[in-house]
From TrEMBL:
Keywords: Calcium, Cytoplasm, Dioxygenase, Iron, Lipid metabolism, Metal-binding, Oxidoreductase. Pathway: Lipid metabolism. Residues 1-117 form the PLAT domain. The record marks W102 as: Essential for stabilizing binding to COTL1. The keyword Oxidoreductase applies. This is Arachidonate 12-lipoxygenase.
Length: 670
């Protein structure tokens, strides 16, 4: 028997190899010859798709797996294999063996299962069962849990990205771009600082334009021109970088002594605060989580933190506007209530303090904890408990690409004792961990599901809440897609309950990953298809849509530093009449801090050159026509949503496009 074998090499830089590659076919009736794959000329070049002939003394029967071996030739040269395809002589059928893995080292052996997705109950041959077991045992040695810090989700056991296996590392192009773009941004702004002669503080607000550089975005420019306006301040709670905090206020908190007379001038003349509370038109931003967080010390100077409350009113003509601000949780003589009728500079500074708290909450809680760290738990559990042939592994794998490396880099480069947060952010140092621990204690699985999140916050009827509208549409599309895939492989709840690999996976997620969070609300076993579909939908929604909503706009909203300052260098004002422009300038980030804020938010928020848009599966783990049909339907629905969002935004001066599927990455890569 002669089998035609096609081998595809990766397309990224350094994917090819000059090492020896051997291949063996393994079928139900035996194995082929161990064949060195060697054609005239160069084999296994970057992007190559090479054909070979593999001989067997007899018909191997249905093929089970392909065994690949790599041996050194002169020097060690890693190889990335995309897939192997095998055509059977005399038959129309062919087999596809997805790989998408690196072969690293000398005399390394990788065995690939045929591409049909199978649960453990679908494998009846001893070879199939033993392959699953061996694969998972090897992975569990490589991918280990680590408690990076107490009181937050567990993560991958790696001191830095260099400790990660090659299979979960950035491609070379991604690595070069990631490191080069940050250096480019810092260099650009360092030159700006030199031009400004390293002054410590700005002289006035217009001075910030001196670092408002060539990489600015249309929304960043809009922000620069409108940031003082109350309606724009309110808009950002709906569609800015932290759109998950606003809640309906049914009654005023006891520690927020706002009276109707105080805010009457902000309401329409024919109503009262009491009436608007009943109607559901009063909303609250409460940053109680910031109360008592230790402030950073930067260059021997203490920074400052507030824990503000902000009351907002959905005005029938002006939209959502702030009507009262208190900068600390405990009202007293040194904690005044700020109102729109106050001296303009006092009201402006109060809003800046709210936006400063928004920076801390969105970066550390909405972005880091609730997307990056949540998805890392799912990623580690998937790598440890699901073999590559499992349908749920195939479903999740594209949505976990690069997440482990970007999280490792975040821990070492952003959050570490000498990281960027320590250099420029008011919660840098001890504060950021305490803040994350507080949020983790109250994190719930329910809040990660958008339908419940908006319902529980009482914001289902807020006007112009594009983040909500687009999130719900994306959730429905994702849930339909997940349901379609799950239903192909699980015909009943009993099949879910009896899948030992899925039960080990959920136990790893709930017990190992989300440890010490009693209110989280995720059971350690899955009993129904619906429970599995919901959890998978949460994982995919969080790694795509939710991450895009909090990450992709951070340069837009933070580039104009006064709109969202990363730190404050003076304490919150205690006397409204004492607020001057000099005080504001001395409070806002200095020149150096402002430059780093602009650089890091551009670096993290910009579109990634190698981004894979949502629903575009470059690595094709599924091979069955039925699964590919579900994927095609998913893509079609995403395209229709894209067209709807673009049409909805046509003519708007301030457009909300962060949740256009073409702008959402398939996974958390930045």
């Amino acid at each position: 028997m002669e089998y035609k074998v096609t081998v595809a090499t990766g397309t990224s830089e350094y994917s090819g190899t000059n090492n020896y590659i051997y291949l063996t076919l393994v079928g139900e009736r035996g194995e082929s010859e161990r064949t060195m794959l060697d054609n005239p000329g160069l084999d296994f070049c970057r992007g190559a798709v090479d054909d070979y002939t593999v001989k067997s003394a007899a018909d191997l029967g249905p093929l089970i797996l392909v065994r690949l071996e790599k041996q050194r030739y002169w020097v060690e040269d890693n190889w990335f294999c995309r897939y192997v395809k095998v055509s059977v002589p005399g038959e129309r059928c062919s087999y596809t063996f997805p790989c998408y893995r690196w072969l690293v080292g000398d005399k390394v052996v990788v065995e690939l299962r045929e591409g049909t997705a199978k649960k453990i109950s679908d494998d009846t041959l001893p070879l199939e069962r033993s392959h699953r077991t061996t694969e998972l045992l090897e992975r569990q040695k490589i991918y280990r849990w680590l408690a990076w810090a107490p009181g937050i989700p567990k993560c991958i056991d790696a001191k830095s990205e260099a400790d990660l296996p090659q299979d979960v590392r950035f491609d070379n192009e991604k690595r070069s771009d990631f490191e080069g773009s940050l250096q480019y941004a810092l260099l650009e702004l360092s030159l700006k600082k030199l031009a400004i002669k390293f002054g410590k503080s700005w002289n006035d607000l217009d001075d910030f334009k001196r670092i408002f550089w060539k990489l600015r975005s249309p929304i960043a420019e809009y922000t620069m021109n409108h940031w003082k306006e109350d309606s724009f301040f309110g808009y950002q709670f709906l569609n800015g970088s932290n759109p998950r905090m606003i809640t309906r206020c049914k009654e005023l908190p006891s520690n927020f002594p706002v009276t109707g007379d105080m805010v009457q001038s902000s309401l329409i003349p024919t109503t009262t605060l009491k009436e608007e509370l009943k109607k559901g038109n009063i909303f609250l931003i409460d940053h109680a989580v910031m109360d008592g967080i230790p402030a950073n010390v930067i260059r021997d100077k203490a920074q400052h933190i507030a824990a503000p409350l902000c009351l907002l009113y959905e005005h029938p003509e002006k939209g959502l506007i702030p009507i009262a601000i208190q900068l600390e949780q405990k009202p007293d003589k040194d904690t005044p209530l700020f109102l729109p009728s106050d001296p303009p500079l006092a009201w402006l500074l109060a809003k800046m303090w709210v936006r400063h708290s928004e920076f801390q909450v969105f970066q550390l809680l909405s972005h880091l904890l609730r997307t990056h760290l949540v998805v890392e738990v799912i990623c580690v559990a998937t790598l440890r408990q699901l073999p590559a042939v499992h349908p749920i592994y195939k479903l999740l794998a594209p949505h976990l690409r690069y997440t482990l490396e970007i999280n490792c880099r975040g821990r070492t480069q952003l959050l570490s004792p000498d990281g960027i947060f320590k250099r420029v952010v008011s919660t840098g140092g001890d504060g950021l961990l305490i803040l994350a621990q507080r949020e983790y204690k109250v994190l719930t699985y329910r809040s990660l599901q958008p339908k419940f999140d908006f319902l529980d916050r009482g914001v289902t009827k807020l006007r112009d809440y594009f983040y909500r509208d687009h999130s719900l549409m994306l959730w429905d599309i994702i849930q339909n897609f997940v349901s379609g895939i799950v239903s192909l492989y699980y015909k009943s709840d009993r099949e879910v309950e009896q899948d030992s690999e899925i039960q080990a996976w959920i136990n790893d997620v709930a017990v190992e990953g989300f440890v010490d969070v009693p209110q989280f609300g995720l059971a350690s076993e899955l009993k129904t298809k619906e429970e599995l579909i919901t959890l998978l939908s949460v994982g995919i929604f969080t790694s795509t849509s939710q991450h895009a909503a909090t990450n992709n706009g951070q340069f837009d909203w933070c580039a104009w530093v006064p709109n969202t300052p990363c730190t404050m260098r003076h304490p919150p004002p205690t006397d409204k009449d004492a607020v001057t422009m000099d005080l504001i300038m001395d409070t806002l980030p200095d020149i150096s801090q402002s430059c780093v804020q602009m650089a890091i938010t551009w670096h993290l928020g910009r579109a990634q050159p190698d981004a894979i848009p949502m629903g575009q599966y470059v690595e094709q783990y599924f091979t069955e026509p039925a699964a590919l049909k579900v994927i095609d339907k998913f893509r079609k629905e995403l395209k229709e949503l894209e067209e709807h969002i673009i049409a909805q935004n046509e003519g708007l001066e301030l457009q909300y496009l962060y949740l256009c599927p073409s702008r959402i990455e398939n996974s958390i890569t930045i």
